[in-house]
Amino acid sequence: MEKQKPVDHDFRQSFRNEFKRLFQKKLRLNRKKNKGFPQKQKTDMREKDFRIIGFDADDTLWVNEPYFQDTEKQFCELLAEFHPQGKTSEELFKTEMQNLDLYGYGAKGFMLSMIETALRISDNHVSQATISKIINLGKDLLQKPVVLLDDVQQVLECLHAKGIKLVVATKGDLLDQERKLRKSNIEQYFHHVEVMSDKKESDYLKLLSRLEIEPENFLMIGNSLKSDIIPVLNIGGFGIHVPYHTIWQHEKTEQPNHRDNFMEIAHISEVLKIF
Ligand SMILES: [Mg+2]
């Protein structure tokens, strides 16, 4: 019996080692399956003939959603006497969705939706002074500084230097997006800027037709799967998703099914590994 003890220890140890090895192997395979992209797909992206790369603007090139969230927080505080913050946010989102076809995307439509929400949830008892403060919140939103996300400048400069045609394809208010582009100091890298009323498949087809390229020669890069990636994949184009740490409720969606012409990267600088 005494002689068997070391044998048991050895056996247990080798069993543990083998188990650890298999577990780590499975972990590596799972990581590759769930988060990374098989090398074949990366190679495929590298081998494609992208004639134009489209960039979303808000939360892809520069900070946007945190400004809206901050404005919404202040709006909720102004109306604290009528509703708790969560309820006011919910009502505002409802108003925004109802108005989307009329106002489109952007800060001005958001401002009008805030006023409408304030009147509705206060049963028209909100004071003129509060309405005035809401208008100022909207005006402040239209004058926020343009802050480029990390490495954006370097990526655009590098792609531009390689002779790749770059375009901006963004939703939002025309005047506001033009202001942001002007202040961003990256306008010179873009061949074309398209401020779109929406980013559905038909909108992308119109854009590509104007740019005179086929979908298989177009790559779109953006933070919203719903607006920047899925419609482009659906028309036969390519997409690189660069998630931002926060996203507007309206833009949330599931991962796309197409895996062949889609990649997700953690940081925009990873685009340079492909080009
Ligand atoms: Mg965006």
Characterise this structure:
The chain has 275 residues and is α/β, with parallel strands linked by helices. It has a 6-stranded parallel beta sheet, sandwiched between helices. 28% of the residues are buried. The chain starts with a helix and ends in an 11-residue tail after the last strand. The protein has 2 domains: 40-62 and 146-273, HAD superfamily/HAD-like (Rossmann fold), CATH 3.40.50; 65-141, DNA polymerase, domain 1 (Orthogonal Bundle). It contains 10 helices and 6 strands. The longest helix is centred in the first third of the chain and has 31 residues, at 4-34. Residues 1-7 and 30-43 have low confidence and may be disordered. Bound molecules: magnesium ion. Magnesium ion binds at residues 56, 58-60, 222-224.
